[in-house]
């Protein structure tokens, strides 16, 4: 039996946006933190230290990258 696409059977293809999968991370930028760039850098470094203590090296590195971003923002480099 040959594969039949939905369009061959007369159904119209759906171009509606599909819902995105819900990824649960504690460091997603949607978790907004207030304060200046220097304060945000300190907060991300704190989160990195917590992740290191928890043994999550990937999350710790991600937090350090966010901290570096805010360091550059505070210095006017980005």
TrEMBL record:
Residues 9-19 have a biased composition (Basic residues). Residues 1-36 are annotated as: Disordered. It comes from the Bacteria. Residues 23-75 form the DUF4167 domain. Keywords: Plasmid. InterPro entries: DUF4167. This is DUF4167 domain-containing protein.
């Amino acid at each position: 039996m040959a594969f039949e696409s939905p369009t061959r059977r007369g159904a119209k293809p759906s171009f509606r946006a599909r819902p995105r999968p819900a990824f649960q991370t504690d460091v997603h930028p949607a978790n907004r933190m207030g304060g200046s760039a220097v304060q945000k850098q300190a907060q991300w470094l704190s989160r990195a230290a917590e992740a290191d203590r928890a043994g999550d090296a990937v999350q710790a590195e991600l937090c350090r990258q966010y901290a570096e971003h805010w360091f550059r923002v505070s210095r006017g480099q980005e």
